[in-house]
Write a structure and sequence with these properties.
By secondary structure, the chain is mainly beta. It contains no helices and 14 strands. The chain is about 0% helix and about 40% strand.
């Protein structure tokens, strides 16, 4: 098993401290099918009230316990928030996947996520709150194009709707923005409203 643990926020490897802020102005959420795309450093707001900003990517994260000739560790540092004026959101690691440009899953996700320096599997976000996360993935060294994706399904009275976002984390200079229709995101979880 080549999964490794995510270090605490005060680790010397953590470069995600104090990077970026989110606009958390509350609004009424509208649950409708949606697919958005973005790049590192850009705040993306889904219609369900979920807010995400990838603040930085550590493409060759150093963990002395990880040894592989074929794979590398990629640490994605992000801010997430909830601007839904009424509902708390429970954010879990299963909501975040690492994919290539064709939408195929590439990275194994670490079992837990580092949330504000504490390792947990989920975090509740009350309206108007945010959290800093670090998620560690194991990916092939040869993989160049990477996308952090989130997909959430909601069961409304008579239909399912999916809210999706894909952040191009391939290049920290933000020059590789991608249109969502170039990526096939996977549905990974549903919520009944």
């Amino acid at each position: 098993d080549n999964q490794s643990t995510t270090p605490d926020a005060d680790s010397e490897n953590d470069s995600s401290k104090d990077e970026g802020t989110l606009d958390l102005t509350l609004k009424k959420s509208v649950y409708k099918d949606e697919s958005l795309a973005g790049v590192v450093g850009e705040q993306i707001i889904n219609t369900d009230g979920f807010v995400i900003m990838v603040t930085s990517v550590e493409g060759n994260f150093n963990d002395p316990d990880f040894v592989s000739t074929k794979n590398k560790l990629v640490k994605v540092n992000l801010l997430i928030g909830n601007i839904d004026e009424k509902r708390t959101k429970s954010i879990e690691q299963k909501h975040f996947k690492l994919t290539n440009e064709s939408g195929a899953l590439i990275g194994q996700i670490n079992e837990d996520i580092d949330i504000d320096g504490r390792v947990k599997s989920a975090i509740p976000l009350s309206p108007g709150t945010s959290a800093k996360l670090s998620i560690l993935y194991e990916v092939p060294k040869s993989q160049q194009k990477l996308f952090l994706t989130r997909s959430q399904e909601y069961l409304l009275a008579d239909k399912m709707v999916a809210v999706r976002v894909a952040v191009d984390i391939s290049d920290s200079d933000n020059s590789n923005a991608v249109q969502y229709d170039e990526i096939q995101l996977m549905n990974n979880g549903s919520m009944v409203l």
